[in-house]
């Protein structure tokens, strides 16, 4: 897809998957002493690495490592642990330091109980939704489709065409579509048809698939993915908390909550307030106002500014979008 964007002259910008200023926030007793507290990513990284490295150096000093090391290797490993974990070079112990941020370190046992470190990896994924770097089209994902449209030419694309039937025979394929603006039906013929529609839409068409293939089409489930975007009067996450991109790591019923990776230092901004896959209870069947209230109520636990800065919202539940009827297979 990145190569397509290059060929189609679709400008891209970095999508930040992780920022050390992002918060962890877990409700419930399972998080122990760190429950219901905002804990910065940089604090988790620093305190875990520092205290684990301190333990490893003690193990080296006490000759308790399972793998034998030469005396010179032990010195090299200790030097690495001191530098990587920001340990005191003299005492080889961990203390709070400037890059971590203000405050005393969180105890190792508390961090382990909260489980924040389970989200950390030594390096980001090469591909997928947690890759780094990731990119997004400037102006929105639809810029990719618009790029294809420009390259293909307007005469090759028919808009507002709702497929009514697809019939394949020995002589080729006939497709009937409805112009959703005029109500006119049109039949077109071709040697082949490449169908890119969601399978749950195909299942409802007048289409002469074999019984076995139609059964396979109908057996494919689609997610009940939903998103809610929140337009804010002020980019308080940047101005008040120094957050530029990345996500909130929480167990709140929000799925994914993300900060924008574009238009930094401008006045307004849009937050991804909810991106839920799988069980979302009856939230998506509620009025949009109730969905927005759900998001504001829970996000205010982390960002008290939410209600005062909230301007408007946009909610999408793909199962209710006519030509999608679901998020993805």
What does this entry look like structurally?
With 329 residues, the chain is of the alpha+beta class. It folds into three domains: 23-119, de novo design (two linked rop proteins); 158-219, 3-Layer(bba) Sandwich (FAD/NAD(P)-binding domain), CATH 3.50.50.60; 226-320, Polyamine Oxidase, Chain A, domain 2, CATH 3.90.660.10. 28% of the residues lie in helices and 20% in strands. It contains ten helices and 13 strands. A four-stranded mixed sheet has the order 3-2-10-11. A four-stranded mixed sheet has the order 7-6-5-8, with no helix packed on it. The longest helix has 21 residues, at 41-61. The two termini are 19 Å apart. The model has no long low-confidence stretch (mean pLDDT 94).
Task: Write the topology of this structure.
Blueprint: H1 2-7, E1 12-15, E2 23-25, E3 39-40, H2 41-61, H3 71-84, H4 108-114, E4 134-137, H5 142-152, E5 161-169, E6 172-179, E7 185-190, H6 199-202, E8 206-207, H7 211-219, E9 226-232, H8 236-239, E10 247-250, E11 257-258, E12 269-276, H9 288-299, H10 306-309, E13 310-317
Parallel strand pairs: 2-10, 5-8
Antiparallel strand pairs: 1-4, 2-3, 5-6, 6-7, 9-12, 9-13, 10-11
Helix pairs in contact: 2-3
């Amino acid at each position: 897809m990145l190569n397509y964007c290059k060929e189609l002259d679709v400008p891209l910008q970095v999508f930040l998957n992780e920022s050390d200023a992002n918060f962890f926030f877990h409700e419930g007793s399972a998080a122990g002493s760190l429950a219901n507290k905002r804990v910065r990513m940089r604090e988790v990284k620093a305190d875990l690495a520092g205290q684990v490295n301190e333990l490893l150096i003690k193990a080296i000093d006490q000759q308790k490592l399972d793998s034998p090391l030469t005396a010179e290797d032990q010195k090299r490993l200790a030097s690495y642990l001191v530098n990587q974990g920001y340990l005191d070079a003299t005492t080889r112990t961990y203390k709070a330091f400037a890059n971590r941020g203000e405050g005393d370190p969180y105890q190792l046992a508390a961090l382990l109980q909260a489980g924040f470190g389970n989200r950390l990896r030594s390096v980001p994924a090469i591909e997928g939704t947690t890759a780094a770097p990731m990119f997004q089209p400037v102006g929105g994902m639809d810029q990719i489709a618009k790029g294809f449209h420009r390259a293909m030419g307007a005469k090759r694309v028919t808009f507002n065409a709702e497929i009514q039937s697809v019939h394949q025979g020995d002589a080729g394929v006939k497709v009937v579509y409805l112009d959703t603006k005029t109500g006119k039906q049109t039949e077109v013929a071709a040697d082949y048809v490449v169908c890119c529609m969601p399978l749950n839409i195909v299942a409802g068409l007048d289409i002469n698939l074999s019984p076995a293939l139609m059964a396979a089409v109908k057996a494919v489930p689609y997610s009940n993915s939903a998103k809610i975007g929140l337009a804010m009067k002020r980019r308080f996450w940047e101005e008040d908390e120094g957050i530029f991109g990345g996500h909130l790591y929480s167990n709140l019923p929000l799925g994914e909550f993300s900060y924008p990776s574009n238009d930094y230092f401008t006045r307004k901004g849009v937050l991804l307030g909810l991106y839920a896959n799988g069980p979302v209870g009856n939230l998506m069947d509620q009025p949009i106002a109730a969905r927005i209230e759900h998001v504001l109520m829970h996000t205010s636990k982390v960002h008290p500014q939410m209600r005062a800065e909230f301007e408007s919202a946009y909610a999408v539940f793909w199962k209710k979008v006519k030509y999608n009827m679901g998020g993805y297979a």
